Amino acid sequence: MYIPVLFCVLFMWAILHVHGDKYERICPGFGFIIPNGPCNDTCVNDTDCVKYLKCCYSPAVTPCGYHCVPPKINIPKKGKCPTNSTHPLWYLCDVHFCDVDHECKKSCTAKCCPNVCGSLICVEPAK
Asked: What domains, with CATH codes, occur in the chain?
């Protein structure tokens, strides 16, 4: 169980070490997870974290709250997010499919964009 977590942390550290200052660092999203019990913050902002970590709200960890975590690196794909779409998930609320463009793997051009409800989904960019 600890090996995959360690691998993930090391992988993110390697990406951040190479690209950390060039691209936007995004807090990982957890969709619409409702935390259990009282939350406990271990940071207030990014300056409370060691280099390459980001202070992010994490409802999925125990205790929930703001913690220093490896961020996701946003390497944007070309194009802009559409303001309207015929995508079947365009009007579906309370979903979370991506945080950054490279998580949209169905097509090499798909971007991670907010739909009408603000939920993040993978859609083709506006033409």
From this structure: 2-73 (no CATH), 76-127 (4.10.75.10)
